[in-house]
Write a structure and sequence with these properties.
7 helices, 314 residues, ten-stranded mixed sheet, Structural Genomics Hypothetical 15.5 Kd Protein In mrcA-pckA Intergenic Region, Chain A, 2 domains, elongated, Pseudouridine synthase, alpha+beta, 20 strands, four-stranded antiparallel sheet
């Protein structure tokens, strides 16, 4: 876990209850906002302990928020939702001590990597297709694959009123392939397979950006390490939080991903060297992964060491 060290000025003012973000921007433009006694400008950041005055009103300094950001190896049967009425939802499954929510979705009948956090500001920049952040999957289908099928999926498949973006596909065996996507349309991989007359028998997400599943047993979760978080922040630093800025259609926004939230810019540079899994991890209810044997090495981009976390009940 880390601490959020800054927040956009207009958001800070809005969250104080004084006015809306738009009104806050007007106050800033009119020269009525000061940070630590200095006149503020649009887009400035408010750090922990900074004193902000708006049109003569002194706002309470902000306190550091402890950020939770964990990687979960979701089993089949768990639903990626925070809705309490949904049986076997992922929040209940992980049973974390603080309020957290999933970044994006992973179908109930799929398994693999999903992030959970209490930091809504990161969501859009990770999920937006226009930001081209990779998600990698291993897919098992019911019939032998052909070059024509693989090439067809790689070039784009019509669905939900759009054509899927071109993607990387590698055949692993007669009925298994690896696919790397930058978008997350509703049940995208299953629909792509259905387009070519294939049924998906097993779908596992093995990587999101720089984080991989390697060393994390199915049903377990772990905190991201400081090095992993630094790299993650650097990867989303220049990402847009608005699909329209990237030319993504409204239809494409109907994805398997979670609710949008505005994202503040992080000025954290990537770390270097290998990083170990955090010791703060946990096992939820045990499940059989039935994992695929991959014919080629995984381009995981993540750590390769095994979690040393505690094991416990759901």
């Amino acid at each position: 876990m880390s601490r959020e060290d800054s927040i956009r000025l207009n958001k800070f003012i809005s969250e104080s209850g004084l006015c809306s973000r738009r009104e806050a921007d007007r106050f800033i433009e009119q020269g009525l906002v000061y940070i630590n006694g200095k006149k503020a400008s649009i887009g400035e950041q408010v750090k922990v302990g900074d004193r902000v005055r708006v049109n003569g009103h002194e706002l309470e300094p902000r306190e550091g928020e402890e950020i939770v950001f964990i990687a979960v190896n979701k089993p089949v049967g768990i639903t990626s939702t925070t809705e309490e009425g949904v049986r076997d939802n992922i929040v209940q499954f992980v049973n974390y001590s603080k309020r957290i929510f999933p970044i994006g979705r992973l179908d109930k009948d799929s398994q693999g990597l999903i992030f959970l956090t209490n930091n809504g500001d990161m969501v859009n920049k990770i999920l937006r297709a226009g930001n081209k952040h990779e998600k990698e999957y291993i897919v098992t289908v019911n019939k032998p694959l052909t070059d024509a099928i693989l090439q067809g999926m790689a070039n784009g498949v019509p669905m939900l009123g759009v054509t899927t973006k071109k993607c990387k596909i590698i055949q692993e065996s007669a009925t298994v392939f690896r696919i790397v996507l930058v978008q997350g349309l509703n049940r995208q991989i299953r629909r792509m397979c259905e387009h070519f007359g294939l049924d998906v028998i097993k779908l596992e997400r093995i990587r999101i950006m720089n984080i991989s599943l390697k060393g994390l047993p199915i049903g377990d979760w772990r905190d991201l390490t400081p090095d992993e978080m630094r790299v993650l922040y650097s990867m989303i630093e220049d990402s847009s939080s608005d699909d329209r800025k990237k030319g993504v259609s409204v239809t494409q926004k109907k994805s398997d991903d979670s609710k949008p939230n505005n994202q503040q810019k992080k000025n954290i540079k990537p770390g270097s060297g290998k990083s170990e899994y955090s010791s703060h991890s946990r096992s939820s209810k045990k499940s059989n992964s039935g994992g695929n044997k991959i014919a080629r090495g995984r381009d995981s981009g993540g750590p390769n060491r095994k979690s040393k976390g505690r094991r416990g009940g759901r």
